[in-house]
Specification:
Length: 478
């Protein structure tokens, strides 16, 4: 148990229920716990970190990610989205990617994504995926605090003409998947010194039967774990659910008893009322009244011209907002910035979706969604998950308000040190013992294999160049 002192020029401390700015102070950790935050400290320590000129913040709590596949979005899904799928890539591009991947590619994605997370400030991540054992192994390797949710569902999307979304159902597969997820939690929850936890993650509201969701709700309550579900993430999904039930997806989830303070709904972009739906209703009120949390993943939508309407509106109504990365890049730095900027654009107002709002969502909001008052803050009793940012770098200078600088100006290279559970996991911008070049080479090889096999899962049997043509035509020797 190492007792460590960190002397930093700027500290985002937690006091009286909120983040506070401490200019020049000391953080003391004992093992994996913070024991002191204040202007000074006179007690004995085993080692001292001189963080002069640096900004100390809590680590980010990333509430929605797909680490095992999303790096392979690069060079594939950008600038593309059929109008009959309302710009979403869920129904055409994601099935192609999944069918073209192999296990080795998923392993490469997991390792690469873990490095991305560390380099951009995530200390706790909720992974929704299929490779739980490998994700756990990689999380231990990188030292990340991992909540693992094995995804499962009663059916899957498909299209046989590129025009309509259809569903292929297998209810037993969904029940079997739920049992596998429960088994994983019972075997692994609380291992890796408490850093490995589990949650239940039925995949999407439109691919799960009512029975599967009710069973998931009961199991999560029994196990005492969080419950996550993709909801209101596309117009096609919204229309499908209203046609099935005459209710919005969120109204239906309320009526079957699914929602609650331990539930994290991924996205909640397409709501009633809203410009994408032309439906009356008040989905945000339902979220607020039930205490349900929202994982906002701005970039996966913004890159297709879709925006939450609006981040500030959810906050004003009392919804606990959290941030996730979802897709590549697995960067909470980008998530903070795009959430703030896109939120301002949607509301045409600069004084909303502020630096404080998005920083709170990335720290305190995520911790609240997990029922953890020991994450997302620098205070005695909290876990020693600490980020040290260079405050005097090219991008962070001049520094007067550290949170505004982090949200609007910081780059990954500004993150100097990451401490998770009291252990230094990023030192001087490098991950000790990890060859980042090798991670990149493995991912490149995975991409090459995937691109060669896109016809395997595409309804029209198209090659990569037909599905995702190069931005510019090939140079021709003359």
């Amino acid at each position: 148990m190492v007792r460590r002192r960190i002397d930093a020029s700027h500290i985002v401390a937690f006091q009286h229920g909120e983040h506070r700015y401490l200019r020049g102070g000391t953080i003391v950790t004992d093992g994996n716990e913070i024991v002191h935050v204040g202007p000074s400290y006179d007690g004995p320590v085993d080692e001292t970190i001189d963080a002069s000129g640096m900004v100390a913040t809590p680590g980010f709590v990333n509430t929605h990610a797909h680490l095992y596949e999303s790096p392979l979005d690069k060079s594939f899904v950008e600038d593309l989205g059929r109008r009959q799928f309302y710009l979403s890539g869920l129904f055409e591009y994601l099935p192609v990617r999944s069918a073209a991947m192999d296990d080795e590619a998923a392993y490469a994605c997991l390792a690469y994504s873990m490095a991305e997370l560390l380099r951009t400030g995530t200390t706790t991540v909720l992974e929704i995926g299929s490779y739980a054992e490998e994700a756990a192994r990689q999380a231990e390797r990188f030292g990340l605090r991992l909540y693992m949710g094995l995804g499962y569902r009663s059916g899957r999307w498909c299209t046989d003409d590129g025009k309509r979304v259809r569903y292929a159902w297998d209810e037993q597969a969904g029940l079997d998947g739920l049992q596998r997820a429960i088994d994983f939690i019972e075997r692994h929850d609380g291992t890796q010194n408490g850093r490995l936890k589990g949650f239940l993650s039925p995949a999407q509201v439109d691919t799960c039967t009512e029975d599967l969701l009710r069973r998931s709700r009961d199991a999560a309550t029994h196990l005492g774990v969080p419950l996550a579900l993709h909801t209101s993430q596309s117009v096609n999904e919204f229309l499908e659910m209203t046609q099935r039930h005459g209710k919005t997806p969120i109204e239906w989830l309320r009526d079957i008893g699914f929602l609650g303070p331990d539930v994290i709904l991924g996205h909640c972009i397409v709501l009633a009322p809203g410009s994408w739906t032309n439906w009356s209703g008040d989905d945000i009120a339902i979220l607020a009244d039930t205490g349900t949390n929202v994982a906002h993943c701005v970039w996966v939508f913004a890159r297709r011209g879709i925006a939450m309407e609006s981040f500030a509106r959810y906050l004003a109504r009392g919804v606990n907002m959290t941030l996730g990365t979802d897709t590549c890049p697995q960067s909470m730095i980008e998530g903070l910035r795009y959430t703030a900027v896109v939120g301002k654009i949607v509301d045409r107002q600069t004084e909303v979706a502020t630096a404080a709002d998005v920083f709170n969502a990335a720290t305190l909001g995520g911790a609240r969604a997990l029922g953890r008052d020991d994450l997302g803050r620098l205070a005695p009793g909290a876990k020693a998950d600490i980020l040290l940012w260079a405050g005097d770098s090219l991008f962070m200078t001049p520094l007067r308000d550290p949170i505004r600088n982090l949200v609007y100006s910081a780059q990954a290279e500004d993150l100097h040190t990451v401490i998770i559970d009291g252990e230094v996991r990023l030192r001087d911008r490098a991950v000790p013992g990890v060859d980042v070049g090798e991670l990149a080479r493995n991912l490149q090889a995975a991409g090459e294999r995937m691109w060669a096999n896109t016809a395997r899962g595409d309804w029209a049997g198209r090659t990569i160049d037909e599905l995702a043509p190069q931005t510019f035509p090939a140079f021709v020797a003359e």
